[in-house]
UniProtKB/TrEMBL annotation:
<keyword id="KW-1133">Transmembrane helix</keyword>
<feature type="transmembrane region" description="Helical">
    <location>
        <begin position="318"/>
        <end position="337"/>
    </location>
</feature>
<protein>
    <submittedName>
        <fullName>OpgC protein</fullName>
    </submittedName>
</protein>
<feature type="transmembrane region" description="Helical">
    <location>
        <begin position="264"/>
        <end position="286"/>
    </location>
</feature>
<feature type="transmembrane region" description="Helical">
    <location>
        <begin position="393"/>
        <end position="417"/>
    </location>
</feature>
<feature type="transmembrane region" description="Helical">
    <location>
        <begin position="199"/>
        <end position="216"/>
    </location>
</feature>
<feature type="transmembrane region" description="Helical">
    <location>
        <begin position="44"/>
        <end position="64"/>
    </location>
</feature>
<feature type="region of interest" description="Disordered">
    <location>
        <begin position="1"/>
        <end position="38"/>
    </location>
</feature>
<dbReference type="Pfam" id="PF10129">
    <property type="entry name" value="OpgC_C"/>
</dbReference>
<feature type="compositionally biased region" description="Low complexity">
    <location>
        <begin position="15"/>
        <end position="25"/>
    </location>
</feature>
<feature type="transmembrane region" description="Helical">
    <location>
        <begin position="116"/>
        <end position="137"/>
    </location>
</feature>
<keyword id="KW-0472">Membrane</keyword>
<feature type="transmembrane region" description="Helical">
    <location>
        <begin position="76"/>
        <end position="96"/>
    </location>
</feature>
<feature type="transmembrane region" description="Helical">
    <location>
        <begin position="236"/>
        <end position="257"/>
    </location>
</feature>
<dbReference type="InterPro" id="IPR014550">
    <property type="entry name" value="UCP028704_OpgC"/>
</dbReference>
<feature type="transmembrane region" description="Helical">
    <location>
        <begin position="349"/>
        <end position="373"/>
    </location>
</feature>
<keyword id="KW-0812">Transmembrane</keyword>
């Protein structure tokens, strides 16, 4: 499952319309005294991740063969979790700084409450929807079974308790629980911050090591949470491993970690790691290399079993972390200082088209929770629609493009409701 962790969107109220407009303008054109509410790179890259996540979750999607996960260790999950940490530094870090630890913790608890009920609502909506599809579509496929929900429907009384206590977490529904646990760690991190940055770093790294004990040669079984009471399966996204990436983004946005220097040597090193690690992190790339050079492929194949734990997604293996940081560094350079390279120059047709694309992708990135929930449900309906076709290139393109249009509409709709237009003075 390619997943993500929704987080607070910027205030879109009437009092912040001018600031929101400034965010979509080049930095040098923002009027003096008016600050942009967010770094434009944050919502742009998060918006890209949201489109990728939709593609990744449509069952049997041809386009899913070309998402980042098919070309290396990390994927859109890392993009979203990292940006989640950055956005949380803006939304929650400021609350801790301005109002103190107790009120900052209360703000986090309130967000946890929102995300918890979003998780519960998403589960029951999709459980109902899969039941409707099973009852109405003439198909040999069980849509309830496609999400492994038979245990819930066959033993509802027991599993209802598991759903609400997060001791029964089906794979498709595991990103929001992971985010809840990571958010719950934030008060501890903010408290440790008073002891210094090294205390925070030590806490985060120690938790990650507990989830990944293989790094210290302590065996494969680390700290995790149970996903279902009848087996030993753990949460697909182990929050004790993934918090390392979240708090890395948090630390960069909070200024606890310095901005990485822009240096051609580091850029070359990052690019080389991305390119040369691809056959070890992607079966797709490996199959290409193996077809072109079977002897080299035979040499590489045994490495896959050796690095299994180091590239594992569940506990966030170290190779995924290094791969994402390499990718993020190049994205940092490409976007330029303050994201200035994202903005088109001039008034040509291409410049206007790109400006429109940038605005749309940014809007999608801003409305994270609404878009995530919508895309997770929408992906299943698009998959069911494709089941009624021959899954041709054209049918797949139509399904994906319709999905894009719908999540864009959701983003603008959510933004409109958040602006509370009914409160504006005439």
């Amino acid at each position: 499952m390619a997943d993500i962790a929704p987080f607070p969107a910027p205030n879109q109220g009437s009092a912040s319309r001018a600031a929101a407009n400034a965010m979509t303008a080049p930095p040098e054109t923002v009027p003096a005294g008016q600050s942009r509410p967010r770094d434009p790179r944050l919502d742009f890259y998060r918006g890209i991740a949201m489109f990728i996540i939709l593609v990744a979750h449509v069952p049997g999607n041809r386009w899913g063969g070309w998402i980042p996960a098919r070309f290396g260790f990390s994927d859109a999950t890392e993009i979203f979790v990292f940006c989640s940490g950055m956005a949380s530094a803006i939304a929650f870090g400021g609350s801790f700084a301005r109002h103190g630890w107790w009120l900052g913790t209360a703000r986090v608890a309130y967000r946890c409450w929102q995300v918890y009920w979003a998780h519960i609502g998403l589960f029951f909506f999709l459980a109902m929807s899969m039941a409707v599809l099973d009852l109405t579509l003439a198909s040999d496929k069980s849509y309830i079974g496609s999400l492994n929900l038979h245990p819930f429907f066959s033993n509802t009384v027991s599993q209802m308790v598991g759903i609400f206590t997060l001791t029964y977490v089906p794979n498709y529904f595991d990103i929001l629980p992971m985010y809840l646990v990571v958010l719950a760690l934030m008060p501890a991190v903010m408290g440790l911050r008073h002891a210094g940055r090294w205390a925070v770093a030590g806490f985060s790294v120690a938790l990650w090591l507990l989830a990944n004990p293989y790094v210290l040669g302590l065996g494969p079984n680390g700290l995790s949470l149970p996903a279902e009471p009848w087996s030993d399966r753990e949460w697909f996204f182990n929050p004790f491993g993934w918090q390392l990436l979240f708090f890395t983004g948090f630390a960069f946005m909070s200024g606890w970690l310095p901005k990485p220097p822009v240096h051609w040597g580091l850029a070359v090193l990052a690019a080389c790691f991305l390119i040369f690690s691809a056959p070890f992190g992607s079966w797709k790339v490996f199959s290409w290399l193996n077809a072109a050079a079977p002897d080299l492929g035979a040499t590489i194949r045994p490495v896959w079993s050796v690095i299994g734990e180091w590239r594992e997604k569940t506990d966030f293996g170290l190779l995924r972390f290094v791969h994402f940081l390499s990718l993020a560094y190049l994205a940092w350079i490409v976007a330029g200082a303050g994201g200035r390279n994202l903005y088109a120059r001039g008034n040509s047709l291409l410049a206007r088209i790109w400006t429109g694309i940038l605005a749309v992708v940014t809007k999608v990135g801003q409305q994270s929770l609404a878009i995530f929930i919508t895309s997770m449900a929408l992906a299943r309906f698009l998959g069911a629609a494709l089941d009624q076709t021959d899954r041709s290139i054209a049918a797949t393109a139509v399904a994906n493009l319709c999905g894009f249009v719908l999540i864009i509409a959701c983003a603008y709709g959510a933004g409109w409701f958040k602006s509370q237009p009914w409160r504006r003075k005439r």
